[in-house]
Fold this sequence. Notes:
Strand order of the largest sheet: 6-4-1-10-11-12-13-14-15
Distance between the termini: 46 Å
Helix content: 25-40%
Shape: globular
Largest sheet: 9 strands, mixed
Structural class: alpha/beta
Amino acid sequence: MPKTFDLVALGECLVELSEAADGLYRIGYAGDVLNTLFYASRLGMKCGLISQIGTDLFTDGLTRLLDAESIDRASAPLLANRPNGLYAIKTDAAGHPAYNFWRSESAARETLHQTPHGLLEETALSSKHLHISAIALAVMKGSERLVDLARSLGGKTTVSFDTNVRVALWKDLGELRICIQAFGSATNFLFVTDSDDEALYGLRSPNSAIAAYCQMGYSTILYRRGAEGCVLYQDGNATNMPARRVDVVDTTGAGDAFNAGFLRAYLAGEALTECARQANAVASCALGVRGGLNFSFDRAMAEEAISELTRSNFAA
């Protein structure tokens, strides 16, 4: 099948209420896969979204954003009589966010229930890469279909999975642990943060965590460590990749930007160590603004961040 897209991602778009400096809340739009698609599109990738969009007071704003950012929504139709999910975000002095969510009746929950498997597979196969987040597993009805979808793409479309743990979404984190195990042999890349890993399995070293994911069948692992950068595991080797140092306003969306930076470099044919370096650089570009999207971000900003991080690595 011809590859219409570089990247298609499956997940939930959310209305975002982020606290501004004056204590008021600003309306925006975000969600983990939307954040990744935003940064990927601004890096020059051709992107598509698989979801369902609600019909409420925020629909026009959300669809305008998707269209303005050239994120194709042919596979994200409007669903009547369902709202969009909403969340509020408040950050502490160190930029660490706290969230409240209202999404129990959101349109996105119906995505897998409303979309035939054949259409899901066709959309995924039209892309060079499919990105899936564990949030979709928690939010969407029929999410067990996602492992089958990932397996059906083997050798035709590469797949990444982000653990993206939101404890409040799971009645039992054991269910998520089972899903993570199931995705091990069905995906090309695992994105996981140290905080996600601790929430799932308790405190352990990066090497212990990576060894456990390898046992599950994951072959390439990006173990994100915030300000400490990331550990790239590939072909039996683990490489520490340092982060770019910046002033942090809000960490929301940084991991999603990391994913976008990595996948853009990977699809451009870069070595995986270079993919991880660029991912760290792009992630840093998301840290200086409140909310999940930095509207000042563009390829020039990314290239400057990559060059700065490369120079600092050589200097070290």
